[in-house]
């Protein structure tokens, strides 16, 4: 898709690409700023190359305006999601508690996996049975 976006932008030319610039830059910006663990470096390099191509094609000033608009929109979305998550913890504490328990569980599993990879002879302790605690949890 990134190659397609680059080809379309070159095909349209300087004047006809300007209205579509924010639409084209949105996925490129998202790929550049992604923090996923399993990130593909070829995609990141390709998006960087297409951004450089767009800079040359459109000009630095127009590109900067469009790129800053895309950045601003992404930051607003991120802030909105964060605000909604905070509001959900107040409005639905049971859902928030479940999410927190799940996060702690995955964190413990990750820690065990990391220890197992670093020290293969080490065995992680088995979790203790908390029968009363298990009964009190809402699922």
From TrEMBL:
Cellular component terms per the entry's GO annotation: 90S preribosome; small-subunit processome
Region (Disordered): 99-139
Coiled coil (UniProt feature): 29-63
A Pfam family the protein falls into: UTP20_C
Biased composition regions of type Basic residues, renumbered to the chain: 99-130
Domain named U3 small nucleolar RNA-associated protein 20 C-terminal: residues: 1-116
Superkingdom to which the source organism belongs: Eukaryota
Keywords: Coiled coil
Name of protein: UTP20 protein
Species of the source: Rhinopomastus cyanomelas
């Amino acid at each position: 898709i990134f190659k397609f976006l680059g080809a379309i932008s070159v095909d349209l030319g300087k004047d006809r690409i300007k209205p579509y610039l924010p639409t084209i830059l949105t996925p490129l910006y998202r790929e550049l700023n992604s923090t996923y663990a399993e990130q593909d470096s070829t995609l990141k390099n390709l998006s960087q190359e297409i951004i450089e191509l767009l800079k040359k094609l459109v000009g630095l000033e127009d590109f900067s305006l469009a790129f800053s608009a895309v950045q601003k929109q992404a930051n607003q979305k991120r802030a909105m999601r964060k605000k909604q998550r905070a509001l959900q913890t107040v409005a639905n504490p049971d859902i928030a508690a479940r999410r927190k328990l799940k996060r702690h569980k995955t964190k413990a599993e990750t820690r065990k996996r990391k220890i197992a990879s670093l020290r293969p002879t080490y065995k992680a302790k088995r979790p203790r049975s908390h029968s009363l605690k298990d009964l009190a949890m809402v699922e």
